[in-house]
Design brief:
Chain lengths: 160, 267
Amino acid sequence: MTKRKQASKITKGHKISLATLSMLGAVAGWNAIGRVESNKTVTPAVVIATPEPIVAGATPWPTIPSLADIPRLDIQPLPTLAIMGGLETQGDSLTLAGGEMAASINNLAMPSLAPLPTLAPLPTMPEYVPPPPPAPPSVQVAAAPPPPSNGGGNNVSAGS
Amino acid sequence: MLTGNNDDTRETGQLMGLIIVGSCILILAGLFALGHNHQLAGEQSWLSQLGRAAIGLMPASLRIMVSDQARVMGLPLAADSQAYWYLARAGGVVAYMLLWLATSWGIMMSSKVIKGVVSVPVAYALHGYLPILGVVFAALHALVLLGDTYIGFTPWQLLIPFTSTYKPFWTGLGVLAFYLSVALIASSYVRKRIGQKMWRTFHFTSYLGFLMALLHGIMAGSDSDTMVMHIIYLVTGGLTIFLVLFRMLAYSPRVQRAVTANRPPAR
Protein backbone atom coordinates (compact mmCIF):
# COMPACT_ATOMS: atom_id res chain seq x y z
CA MET A 1 0.00 0.00 0.00
CA THR A 2 1.51 3.33 -1.01
CA LYS A 3 1.85 6.34 1.28
CA ARG A 4 -0.73 8.16 -0.78
CA LYS A 5 -3.30 5.43 -0.30
CA GLN A 6 -2.62 5.45 3.41
CA ALA A 7 -3.08 9.19 3.50
CA SER A 8 -6.25 8.88 1.46
CA LYS A 9 -7.66 6.42 4.01
CA ILE A 10 -6.71 8.69 6.90
CA THR A 11 -8.09 11.82 5.36
CA LYS A 12 -11.36 10.21 4.27
CA GLY A 13 -12.68 10.59 7.79
CA HIS A 14 -11.38 14.16 8.00
CA LYS A 15 -13.03 15.02 4.71
CA ILE A 16 -16.39 13.60 5.70
CA SER A 17 -16.17 15.37 9.06
CA LEU A 18 -15.31 18.67 7.38
CA ALA A 19 -18.14 18.36 4.88
CA THR A 20 -20.62 17.46 7.63
CA LEU A 21 -19.42 20.31 9.81
CA SER A 22 -19.75 22.73 6.92
CA MET A 23 -23.27 21.54 6.16
CA LEU A 24 -24.23 21.81 9.82
CA GLY A 25 -22.65 25.24 9.94
CA ALA A 26 -24.66 26.38 6.95
CA VAL A 27 -27.92 25.07 8.41
CA ALA A 28 -27.12 26.54 11.84
CA GLY A 29 -26.30 29.86 10.19
CA TRP A 30 -29.52 29.69 8.19
CA ASN A 31 -31.47 29.13 11.40
CA ALA A 32 -29.60 31.86 13.26
CA ILE A 33 -30.17 34.38 10.48
CA GLY A 34 -33.85 33.43 10.41
CA ARG A 35 -34.11 33.98 14.16
CA VAL A 36 -32.36 37.35 13.97
CA GLU A 37 -34.62 38.46 11.11
CA SER A 38 -37.80 37.37 12.88
CA ASN A 39 -36.65 39.20 16.02
CA LYS A 40 -36.03 42.29 13.92
CA THR A 41 -39.65 42.25 12.74
CA VAL A 42 -40.93 41.96 16.32
CA THR A 43 -38.57 44.54 17.79
CA PRO A 44 -40.32 47.72 16.53
CA ALA A 45 -43.41 47.00 18.66
CA VAL A 46 -41.21 46.73 21.75
CA VAL A 47 -39.40 49.91 20.83
CA ILE A 48 -42.66 51.80 20.63
CA ALA A 49 -43.67 50.58 24.06
CA THR A 50 -40.39 51.68 25.64
CA PRO A 51 -40.38 55.33 26.69
CA GLU A 52 -37.67 57.32 25.10
CA PRO A 53 -35.19 59.16 27.31
CA ILE A 54 -36.10 62.75 27.91
CA VAL A 55 -33.53 65.22 26.75
CA ALA A 56 -33.19 67.86 29.43
CA GLY A 57 -33.50 71.43 28.34
CA ALA A 58 -35.01 70.74 24.98
CA THR A 59 -38.54 71.55 25.97
CA PRO A 60 -39.59 73.24 29.21
CA TRP A 61 -41.85 71.26 31.42
CA PRO A 62 -45.44 72.39 31.27
CA THR A 63 -46.27 74.40 34.41
CA ILE A 64 -49.51 75.01 36.23
CA PRO A 65 -50.34 78.71 36.09
CA SER A 66 -50.46 80.39 39.48
CA LEU A 67 -53.87 81.11 40.90
CA ALA A 68 -53.21 84.81 40.80
CA ASP A 69 -52.92 84.65 37.07
CA ILE A 70 -56.24 82.94 36.60
CA PRO A 71 -59.00 85.49 35.94
CA ARG A 72 -61.43 85.52 38.77
CA LEU A 73 -64.81 84.19 37.85
CA ASP A 74 -67.76 86.37 38.72
CA ILE A 75 -69.56 83.86 40.88
CA GLN A 76 -73.15 84.68 41.45
CA PRO A 77 -74.68 83.61 44.74
CA LEU A 78 -76.88 80.60 44.46
CA PRO A 79 -80.50 81.50 44.49
CA THR A 80 -81.99 80.68 47.87
CA LEU A 81 -85.44 79.91 48.95
CA ALA A 82 -87.24 82.82 50.43
CA ILE A 83 -90.35 82.86 52.52
CA MET A 84 -92.86 84.83 50.77
CA GLY A 85 -95.03 87.19 52.58
CA GLY A 86 -98.71 86.63 53.23
CA LEU A 87 -98.40 83.88 55.79
CA GLU A 88 -101.34 83.32 57.94
CA THR A 89 -101.19 82.39 61.53
CA GLN A 90 -103.15 79.31 62.32
CA GLY A 91 -103.02 76.33 64.71
CA ASP A 92 -99.75 74.98 63.69
CA SER A 93 -96.93 77.28 64.18
CA LEU A 94 -93.56 77.39 62.70
CA THR A 95 -90.80 78.56 64.90
CA LEU A 96 -87.82 80.00 63.29
CA ALA A 97 -84.56 80.83 64.87
CA GLY A 98 -84.40 84.39 65.86
CA GLY A 99 -88.11 84.82 66.03
CA GLU A 100 -91.40 83.13 66.09
CA MET A 101 -93.58 83.06 63.17
CA ALA A 102 -96.81 81.35 63.27
CA ALA A 103 -97.64 79.91 60.04
CA SER A 104 -99.76 77.22 58.77
CA ILE A 105 -97.70 74.77 56.79
CA ASN A 106 -100.63 74.08 54.67
CA ASN A 107 -101.00 77.62 53.91
CA LEU A 108 -97.43 78.17 53.26
CA ALA A 109 -96.98 79.61 49.97
CA MET A 110 -94.67 77.74 47.69
CA PRO A 111 -91.25 79.13 47.94
CA SER A 112 -90.09 80.61 44.83
CA LEU A 113 -86.71 81.35 43.54
CA ALA A 114 -85.19 84.52 44.51
CA PRO A 115 -85.85 87.17 42.03
CA LEU A 116 -83.33 87.22 39.37
CA PRO A 117 -80.87 89.91 39.75
CA THR A 118 -81.85 92.68 37.62
CA LEU A 119 -79.85 95.27 36.07
CA ALA A 120 -79.37 98.37 38.02
CA PRO A 121 -82.09 100.91 37.29
CA LEU A 122 -81.22 103.13 34.58
CA PRO A 123 -80.17 106.49 35.75
CA THR A 124 -83.06 108.87 35.67
CA MET A 125 -82.86 110.90 32.70
CA PRO A 126 -83.24 114.59 33.37
CA GLU A 127 -86.66 115.75 32.48
CA TYR A 128 -86.83 117.21 29.14
CA VAL A 129 -86.88 120.86 29.45
CA PRO A 130 -87.85 122.48 26.29
CA PRO A 131 -85.51 125.08 25.33
CA PRO A 132 -86.69 128.54 26.12
CA PRO A 133 -88.45 130.20 23.29
CA PRO A 134 -86.34 132.47 21.34
CA ALA A 135 -86.25 135.88 22.65
CA PRO A 136 -88.58 138.25 20.77
CA PRO A 137 -86.86 140.76 18.58
CA SER A 138 -85.92 143.76 20.66
CA VAL A 139 -88.12 146.83 20.13
CA GLN A 140 -86.08 149.84 19.45
CA VAL A 141 -87.29 152.81 21.36
CA ALA A 142 -87.52 155.85 19.17
CA ALA A 143 -85.17 158.56 20.15
CA ALA A 144 -86.68 161.64 21.52
CA PRO A 145 -87.10 164.22 18.86
CA PRO A 146 -84.58 166.91 19.03
CA PRO A 147 -85.83 170.14 20.40
CA PRO A 148 -87.05 172.47 17.81
CA SER A 149 -84.39 174.68 16.45
CA ASN A 150 -84.71 178.29 15.86
CA GLY A 151 -84.41 177.92 12.28
CA GLY A 152 -80.85 178.18 12.11
CA GLY A 153 -80.00 174.75 12.30
CA ASN A 154 -77.55 174.05 14.85
CA ASN A 155 -76.46 177.48 15.12
CA VAL A 156 -77.01 178.65 18.54
CA SER A 157 -77.60 182.13 18.79
CA ALA A 158 -75.18 183.93 20.75
CA GLY A 159 -77.77 186.24 22.01
CA SER A 160 -77.50 189.80 21.54
CA MET B 1 6.62 1.50 -8.23
CA LEU B 2 5.68 2.73 -11.65
CA THR B 3 2.53 0.59 -11.66
CA GLY B 4 1.56 2.01 -8.28
CA ASN B 5 1.91 5.55 -9.59
CA ASN B 6 -0.21 4.75 -12.63
CA ASP B 7 -2.91 3.22 -10.40
CA ASP B 8 -2.90 6.34 -8.22
CA THR B 9 -3.23 8.61 -11.23
CA ARG B 10 -6.09 6.50 -12.60
CA GLU B 11 -7.85 6.53 -9.21
CA THR B 12 -7.48 10.29 -8.90
CA GLY B 13 -8.82 10.75 -12.41
CA GLN B 14 -11.81 8.57 -11.67
CA LEU B 15 -12.49 10.42 -8.41
CA MET B 16 -12.28 13.78 -10.14
CA GLY B 17 -14.62 12.58 -12.87
CA LEU B 18 -17.12 11.39 -10.30
CA ILE B 19 -16.92 14.68 -8.39
CA ILE B 20 -17.46 16.72 -11.56
CA VAL B 21 -20.38 14.58 -12.78
CA GLY B 22 -21.93 14.54 -9.31
CA SER B 23 -21.59 18.31 -8.96
CA CYS B 24 -23.16 18.88 -12.37
CA ILE B 25 -26.11 16.62 -11.51
CA LEU B 26 -26.55 18.38 -8.16
CA ILE B 27 -26.39 21.82 -9.75
CA LEU B 28 -28.88 20.88 -12.46
CA ALA B 29 -31.25 19.33 -9.93
CA GLY B 30 -30.95 22.39 -7.74
CA LEU B 31 -31.66 24.70 -10.66
CA PHE B 32 -34.64 22.61 -11.68
CA ALA B 33 -36.07 22.63 -8.16
CA LEU B 34 -35.46 26.35 -7.75
CA GLY B 35 -36.96 27.14 -11.13
CA HIS B 36 -40.11 25.29 -10.26
CA ASN B 37 -40.49 26.45 -6.71
CA HIS B 38 -39.63 30.02 -7.59
CA GLN B 39 -42.92 30.33 -9.48
CA LEU B 40 -45.14 28.57 -6.96
CA ALA B 41 -46.91 29.67 -3.81
CA GLY B 42 -46.25 27.89 -0.52
CA GLU B 43 -49.24 25.60 -0.83
CA GLN B 44 -48.38 24.49 -4.35
CA SER B 45 -44.64 24.01 -3.90
CA TRP B 46 -43.81 20.34 -4.21
CA LEU B 47 -40.73 20.81 -2.06
CA SER B 48 -42.84 22.20 0.74
CA GLN B 49 -45.34 19.36 0.31
CA LEU B 50 -42.46 16.89 0.50
CA GLY B 51 -41.21 18.64 3.62
CA ARG B 52 -44.66 18.60 5.18
CA ALA B 53 -44.98 14.90 4.43
CA ALA B 54 -41.61 14.25 6.06
CA ILE B 55 -42.62 16.27 9.13
CA GLY B 56 -45.90 14.33 9.28
CA LEU B 57 -43.97 11.10 9.74
CA MET B 58 -42.29 12.40 12.87
CA PRO B 59 -43.61 11.93 16.40
CA ALA B 60 -45.93 14.69 17.63
CA SER B 61 -43.47 16.31 20.03
CA LEU B 62 -40.74 16.48 17.41
CA ARG B 63 -43.21 17.63 14.75
CA ILE B 64 -44.04 20.84 16.63
CA MET B 65 -40.37 21.63 17.18
CA VAL B 66 -39.41 20.97 13.56
CA SER B 67 -42.37 22.99 12.26
CA ASP B 68 -41.35 25.89 14.49
CA GLN B 69 -37.76 25.74 13.28
CA ALA B 70 -38.89 25.50 9.67
CA ARG B 71 -41.06 28.58 10.07
CA VAL B 72 -38.12 30.51 11.56
CA MET B 73 -35.93 29.47 8.62
CA GLY B 74 -38.44 30.84 6.10
CA LEU B 75 -39.71 27.48 4.93
CA PRO B 76 -41.59 26.23 2.98
CA LEU B 77 -39.62 27.05 -0.13
CA ALA B 78 -41.90 29.10 -2.34
CA ALA B 79 -41.98 32.26 -4.43
CA ASP B 80 -42.32 34.57 -1.42
CA SER B 81 -40.08 32.56 0.89
CA GLN B 82 -37.23 34.19 2.83
CA ALA B 83 -35.43 30.85 3.01
CA TYR B 84 -33.40 31.53 -0.16
CA TRP B 85 -32.07 34.78 1.25
CA TYR B 86 -31.19 33.28 4.63
CA LEU B 87 -29.52 30.21 3.11
CA ALA B 88 -27.55 32.32 0.63
CA ARG B 89 -26.16 34.43 3.47
CA ALA B 90 -25.30 31.41 5.60
CA GLY B 91 -23.73 29.64 2.61
CA GLY B 92 -21.63 32.70 1.85
CA VAL B 93 -20.27 32.84 5.39
CA VAL B 94 -19.43 29.11 5.36
CA ALA B 95 -17.73 29.45 1.97
CA TYR B 96 -15.66 32.36 3.27
CA MET B 97 -14.66 30.42 6.37
CA LEU B 98 -13.59 27.42 4.28
CA LEU B 99 -11.61 29.63 1.95
CA TRP B 100 -9.92 31.22 4.95
CA LEU B 101 -9.13 27.78 6.40
CA ALA B 102 -7.65 26.68 3.07
CA THR B 103 -5.50 29.81 2.81
CA SER B 104 -4.34 29.66 6.42
CA TRP B 105 -3.66 25.93 6.17
CA GLY B 106 -1.51 26.56 3.11
CA ILE B 107 0.49 29.29 4.86
CA MET B 108 0.96 27.12 7.94
CA MET B 109 2.14 24.25 5.74
CA SER B 110 4.69 26.37 3.93
CA SER B 111 5.94 27.97 7.16
CA LYS B 112 6.22 24.53 8.76
CA VAL B 113 4.07 25.56 11.75
CA ILE B 114 2.14 22.31 11.61
CA LYS B 115 5.23 20.18 11.08
CA GLY B 116 5.08 17.31 13.53
CA VAL B 117 1.49 18.08 14.49
CA VAL B 118 -0.16 16.73 11.34
CA SER B 119 1.43 14.23 8.97
CA VAL B 120 2.54 15.65 5.64
CA PRO B 121 0.17 13.58 3.41
CA VAL B 122 -2.84 14.48 5.59
CA ALA B 123 -1.85 18.15 5.57
CA TYR B 124 -1.58 18.13 1.76
CA ALA B 125 -4.83 16.23 1.34
CA LEU B 126 -6.71 18.70 3.54
CA HIS B 127 -5.12 21.64 1.76
CA GLY B 128 -6.44 20.25 -1.48
CA TYR B 129 -9.87 19.41 -0.10
CA LEU B 130 -10.70 22.62 1.82
CA PRO B 131 -10.81 24.93 -1.23
CA ILE B 132 -12.98 22.43 -3.12
CA LEU B 133 -15.45 22.45 -0.25
CA GLY B 134 -15.25 26.24 -0.15
CA VAL B 135 -15.99 26.50 -3.85
CA VAL B 136 -18.96 24.14 -3.49
CA PHE B 137 -20.43 26.37 -0.79
CA ALA B 138 -19.65 29.49 -2.81
CA ALA B 139 -21.55 27.95 -5.73
CA LEU B 140 -24.42 27.16 -3.38
CA HIS B 141 -24.31 30.77 -2.14
CA ALA B 142 -24.64 32.08 -5.71
CA LEU B 143 -27.14 29.48 -6.85
CA VAL B 144 -29.53 30.02 -3.96
CA LEU B 145 -29.42 33.78 -4.59
CA LEU B 146 -31.21 33.10 -7.87
CA GLY B 147 -34.25 32.00 -5.89
CA ASP B 148 -34.44 35.19 -3.89
CA THR B 149 -36.87 37.74 -5.26
CA TYR B 150 -35.77 40.74 -3.17
CA ILE B 151 -32.70 41.74 -5.22
CA GLY B 152 -33.62 39.55 -8.17
CA PHE B 153 -30.22 38.40 -9.42
CA THR B 154 -30.14 36.99 -12.91
CA PRO B 155 -27.77 34.15 -13.89
CA TRP B 156 -25.78 36.55 -16.07
CA GLN B 157 -25.30 38.99 -13.22
CA LEU B 158 -23.87 36.17 -11.11
CA LEU B 159 -21.68 34.79 -13.87
CA ILE B 160 -20.30 38.04 -15.29
CA PRO B 161 -18.45 40.21 -12.76
CA PHE B 162 -19.52 43.83 -12.12
CA THR B 163 -22.89 43.51 -13.87
CA SER B 164 -24.99 43.16 -10.74
CA THR B 165 -27.51 45.84 -9.85
CA TYR B 166 -26.71 45.40 -6.15
CA LYS B 167 -23.28 46.89 -5.29
CA PRO B 168 -21.79 45.88 -8.64
CA PHE B 169 -18.13 46.34 -7.71
CA TRP B 170 -18.20 44.42 -4.43
CA THR B 171 -20.43 41.68 -5.84
CA GLY B 172 -18.07 41.45 -8.82
CA LEU B 173 -15.14 40.92 -6.47
CA GLY B 174 -16.92 37.90 -5.04
CA VAL B 175 -17.47 36.48 -8.54
CA LEU B 176 -13.78 37.01 -9.36
CA ALA B 177 -12.73 35.36 -6.09
CA PHE B 178 -14.86 32.35 -7.04
CA TYR B 179 -13.30 32.08 -10.51
CA LEU B 180 -9.82 32.50 -9.07
CA SER B 181 -10.43 29.76 -6.51
CA VAL B 182 -11.65 27.42 -9.24
CA ALA B 183 -8.58 28.23 -11.33
CA LEU B 184 -6.25 27.64 -8.37
CA ILE B 185 -7.83 24.26 -7.68
CA ALA B 186 -7.57 23.33 -11.34
CA SER B 187 -3.94 24.45 -11.49
CA SER B 188 -3.05 21.93 -8.80
CA TYR B 189 -4.30 19.10 -11.00
CA VAL B 190 -2.22 20.25 -13.96
CA ARG B 191 0.79 21.12 -11.87
CA LYS B 192 3.11 18.77 -13.73
CA ARG B 193 2.05 20.13 -17.09
CA ILE B 194 2.43 23.81 -16.29
CA GLY B 195 5.60 23.30 -14.26
CA GLN B 196 6.41 23.88 -10.63
CA LYS B 197 7.58 27.49 -11.10
CA MET B 198 4.50 28.54 -13.01
CA TRP B 199 2.23 26.77 -10.54
CA ARG B 200 4.00 28.38 -7.59
CA THR B 201 3.75 31.86 -9.09
CA PHE B 202 0.07 31.38 -9.84
CA HIS B 203 -0.49 29.93 -6.38
CA PHE B 204 0.51 33.27 -4.84
CA THR B 205 -2.72 34.74 -6.25
CA SER B 206 -4.58 32.74 -3.61
CA TYR B 207 -3.82 35.65 -1.24
CA LEU B 208 -5.53 37.95 -3.69
CA GLY B 209 -8.47 35.56 -3.90
CA PHE B 210 -8.84 35.54 -0.13
CA LEU B 211 -8.58 39.34 0.00
CA MET B 212 -11.27 39.68 -2.66
CA ALA B 213 -13.54 37.28 -0.78
CA LEU B 214 -12.96 39.22 2.44
CA LEU B 215 -13.77 42.56 0.79
CA HIS B 216 -16.80 41.02 -0.91
CA GLY B 217 -18.05 39.80 2.45
CA ILE B 218 -17.44 43.08 4.27
CA MET B 219 -18.78 45.42 1.61
CA ALA B 220 -21.57 43.41 0.00
CA GLY B 221 -22.64 41.24 2.92
CA SER B 222 -25.88 42.27 4.55
CA ASP B 223 -24.70 40.89 7.89
CA SER B 224 -21.47 42.90 7.97
CA ASP B 225 -22.89 45.30 10.54
CA THR B 226 -23.54 42.56 13.09
CA MET B 227 -21.20 41.90 15.99
CA VAL B 228 -20.70 38.24 15.05
CA MET B 229 -19.52 39.12 11.56
CA HIS B 230 -17.27 41.88 12.89
CA ILE B 231 -15.56 39.29 15.09
CA ILE B 232 -15.32 36.75 12.24
CA TYR B 233 -13.77 39.26 9.83
CA LEU B 234 -11.39 40.67 12.43
CA VAL B 235 -10.20 37.26 13.64
CA THR B 236 -9.83 35.69 10.18
CA GLY B 237 -8.28 38.77 8.60
CA GLY B 238 -5.97 39.38 11.56
CA LEU B 239 -4.81 35.77 11.74
CA THR B 240 -4.13 35.68 8.00
CA ILE B 241 -2.06 38.85 8.19
CA PHE B 242 -0.17 37.44 11.17
CA LEU B 243 0.54 34.15 9.41
CA VAL B 244 1.69 35.90 6.24
CA LEU B 245 4.05 38.13 8.22
CA PHE B 246 5.31 35.14 10.18
CA ARG B 247 5.89 33.25 6.95
CA MET B 248 7.71 36.20 5.38
CA LEU B 249 9.92 37.03 8.34
CA ALA B 250 10.66 33.69 9.97
CA TYR B 251 10.87 31.43 6.95
CA SER B 252 12.22 33.69 4.25
CA PRO B 253 15.09 32.16 2.20
CA ARG B 254 17.56 34.71 3.64
CA VAL B 255 16.73 33.75 7.21
CA GLN B 256 16.95 30.06 6.34
CA ARG B 257 20.39 30.57 4.79
CA ALA B 258 21.54 32.44 7.88
CA VAL B 259 20.28 29.67 10.16
CA THR B 260 22.03 27.03 8.07
CA ALA B 261 25.31 29.02 8.06
CA ASN B 262 25.29 29.47 11.84
CA ARG B 263 24.58 25.82 12.50
CA PRO B 264 27.64 24.04 13.95
CA PRO B 265 29.12 21.47 11.58
CA ALA B 266 28.08 17.91 12.24
CA ARG B 267 30.83 15.63 13.57
